[in-house]
Amino acid sequence: MLGKWLCSVLQPIVRSLNHILKDTGDLISNIDNFEVDSSDVLLKADVAEFFMSGDHGDIARESASLLDGELSRLVEDAILFLLDNQYIEMDAASTEAMECYKCIKGSGMGLNCSGDISNLTFYKQMELPFILDPQVRRELGIRLYVRYMDDLFFVIRGARNLSALQGRWLLHARRTNASYTLDGWEASLWSLSNLDIEIYKNGGRLNWRPFIKATSLGIPLHETSNHHNSLHAAWPTGYLYRLARHSSTYHGYANAKRIFIERLEEYNFCPVIIARLKSLNAFWRTRRDRVTGEPEERHRRTWLVLPSHPLWHQAGIAAVLNDFTSPNGNLWHSLWEVAGQSAPTRAVSMPSLAVSWRNDDKHIYLRLRNA
User: Are 226 and 246 in contact (CB under 8 A)?
Assistant: First the structure.
């Protein structure tokens, strides 16, 4: 109960910090339309012992300092009480008895509030006075910085700032007695994987596509399991939609879809479901592709995204909208009547219209293709 109460107090603070990511979709929203130069470096690093760093007193004090008044003192006491009474039971190597160990560092891994405590402690010690400081960002050329737990992602201006960032990080940690160190530095001028997407440069902007590890077996849920039949068809479809959400271009989505279906075929998955997946295009193109080397579309396309309602779909609004763009449609003639003119006798060039619906039926996608 105490941990649940701490979550209710600390989580709103964590959610208010825009640089802390909730998931891959949050990462995509930060890099979408982000302009980069050819000299900009993509950089990622891992915080070593993110959950198991820091003394309990420092962790409780730093986390609670973001609150005001009496609540700050209560939160500090609650965190200190939880962390100081955290024990781990493990199997003994030489005997059959269980051995009990007391956790003396970090926020631990079993508490439901451990992630929020670690997030706020790291924010107070390393981000607020250092990485997020405007002067430090200018000096080190940090153009973009986001973090998901212990995974850090940067866009830095110029390769010369890489060693400067590493050195300044060590100096700041030593000066403030922070125990955080960075491992697994990885930098690239072109592309870098982070979370489950690959981020790459193209046309002066950042693009992204699904990242599938070569070591990932991708073993599917077998159709002979005791799950309901609908689940065996639902989870592959949901996975395709996930690949579509994690793709900035159709080319990236199609390649990830091909790998996914090949793995299903390798494990002799249901042929009927595989055939259905092959015919499904879960990718909605809400903007023009930016991938160099993809076949250019014959016609220029523009997508309009409008709020919708499931009842609109049931009422056949697609037919109404297509009627509007038809030179012989009723709405076409009504538009000319409102304008006080007679409809032209010959066909007028009008853009053709395609209508697409999202799976949640909350948006309608109108695609206008110029004649």
Answer: no
The CA distance from 108 to 50, in Å, is 10
Q: Tokens 């439901």 correspond to what residue?
A: 112
Pairing of strands 301-307, 205-210: unpaired
Q: Give the span between the Cα atoms of 314 and 205, in whole angstroms.
A: 39
For 220-255, write each residue's pLDDT tens digit.
887 778 888 788 888 888 899 899 989 988 888 989
Are 61 and 49 contacting, i.e. CB atoms less than 8 angstroms apart? no
Spatial separation of the C-alpha atoms in residues 235 and 246, rounded to whole Å: 16
- Please name the amino acid found at residue 316: G
d(CA 349, CA 326): 10
pTM above 0.85, yes or no: no
3-state secondary structure of 102: strand
Cα 312 from Cα 141, distance rounded (Å): 49
Structure tokens at 268: 């002799």
What the block records as the tokens of 140 is 């080190």
Tallying the residues shown for the chain, one arrives at 371
Which of 143, 188, 184 minimizes the C-alpha distance to 166?
184
Closest CA to 43 of 202, 192, 206, 203: 192
Contact 232, 272 (CB under 8 A): no
* SS3 readout for 6-22: HHHHHHHHHHHCCCECC
Is the Cα torsion angle 308, 312, 313, 317 positive or negative in sign?
negative
Please tell me the distance from the alpha carbon of residue 63 to that of residue 73, in angstroms, as a whole number: 11
- Taking alpha carbons only, the member of 129, 177, 188, 179 closest to residue 155 is 188
Q: What is the DSSP letter of 359?
A: T
pLDDT digits (tens, 9 = 90+) for 165-195: 988 998 998 888 888 888 888 999 999 999 9
Cα–Cα dist 328/137, whole Å: 60
- Between CA 232 and CA 277 the distance in angstroms is 12
Instruction: Provide DSSP, 75-96.
Output: HHHHHHHHHHT-EEEEE-SSSS
Is 79 in contact with 59 (CB distance < 8 Å)?
yes
